[in-house]
Write a structure and sequence with these properties.
The complex is a heterodimer. Chain A is mostly helical. Chain A has a domain of 101 residues. Chain A is 82% helix and 0% strand. In chain A, α1 packs parallel to α4 and α6 packs antiparallel against α8. Chain A starts with a helix and ends in an 8-residue tail after the last helix. Chain B is an alpha+beta fold. Chain B has one domain: Arc Repressor Mutant, subunit A (Orthogonal Bundle), CATH 1.10.10. In chain B, strands 1-3-2 form a three-stranded antiparallel beta sheet. Chain B is elongated and about 55 Å long. Chain B starts with a helix and ends in a 5-residue tail after the last helix. The chains are: A mainly alpha, B alpha+beta. Chains A and B meet through α2 and α4 of A and α1, α2 and α3 of B.
């Protein structure tokens, strides 16, 4: 692989980044090649020592998304960061995707319970419309109580979701720092 | 353990190299790869991350031959981080060496 191919591969792998960021990275590597050539090295030799352009790009993209998600942790940014960190290596697939799916399940479950509780009088009303004979006063009071409980659960879920997202983003950054060494045979 | 350990070591090497003087990317990479087997490209993502974390600042400087080079400068925050990492490293290696002295290793 010579300089042109290396830079091209890197550019392709960095497509997701904003153009200024891409240029900045590519400039670093052009400079690296230039300095190496001045020392009398071959382009191939320099490219080989640098390693895989794809792996380099993955690390840079993961750093970029982690940075973004720390600034603004909305759903899209979290998903992109998770995806980028998973891409770093097989190990991450397990230690990131596993907890992510588990936490996502808990959050979705919590919201579903809260919303279902809040809506329970509507369900009771529907029930009453279709089967007027089945109406019992107990059901009415129970559903009103559930609504109250549901409102509490929904409000709590709002804070729980924010908290979990924050902790999980930290966990992601921690992983990206540790996993995938740049060392050979690592 | 191994991989995590090496990645931390690479970070310490980069910080340490910038303690006394500013250096450019290629120079940093060569200094490290003279001593440790690394895939050289991975130093650049690390440099970007540490710059984003405000441990380094960068500036461009003309070189005698050809285009200008990006130099990395260690900030006060970076120096503090370097001292912390260095202390952790010393404590760790001393512990391991102590342990190795106590036991006999069969080759």
């Amino acid at each position: 692989m010579n300089k042109t191919i290396f830079i091209k591969k890197l550019e392709k792998a960095l497509e997701k980044l904003p153009p200024e960021e891409q240029q900045d990275v590519l400039e670093d590597f052009r400079e690296h090649f230039h300095a190496g050539l001045q020392e009398g090295k071959e382009e191939e030799e320099i490219a080989n020592a640098l390693g895989s352009p794809n792996q380099i790009a993955k690390e840079i993209i993961a750093t970029y998304y982690l940075d973004r998600v720390e600034e603004k942790s909305n759903v899209g940014n979290i998903f992109r960061a998770v995806w980028a960190v998973i891409g770093l290596g097989f190990f991450n697939l397990i230690i990131v995707l596993g907890p992510f799916i588990a936490l996502l399940g808990c959050i979705v479950g919590g919201w579903a319970v809260g919303i279902a509780f809040v809506c329970s009088p509507i369900l009771l009303l529907l029930d009453f419309m279709f089967y007027p004979d089945s109406f019992r006063l107990f059901d009415l009071f129970a559903s009103i109580a559930l609504t109250g409980l549901g409102i509490f659960i929904t409000i709590a879920m709002f804070y729980v979701t924010r908290f979990i997202a924050k902790v999980f983003v930290r966990y992601l950054s921690y992983n990206a720092k540790l996993v995938k060494g740049g060392l050979k045979h690592a | 353990m191994n991989i995590q350990f090496k990645k931390g070591a690479l970070e310490l090497c980069v910080l340490a190299l910038l303690d006394k003087q500013d250096r450019y990317g290629y120079e940093l990479v060569q200094k490290i790869s003279d001593n440790i087997a690394i895939s050289e490209g991975s130093v650049y993502p690390l440099l970007r991350r540490l710059t984003k974390e405000a441990y380094f600042t960068t500036y461009l400087q003309e070189s005698k031959e050809g285009p200008s080079r990006k130099y990395y400068h260690l900030t006060d925050q970076g120096r503090k981080y370097l001292h912390q990492l260095n202390a952790e490293w010393n404590e760790f290696t001393e512990g391991v060496n102590e342990l190795l002295k106590e036991v006999v290793i069969d080759e």
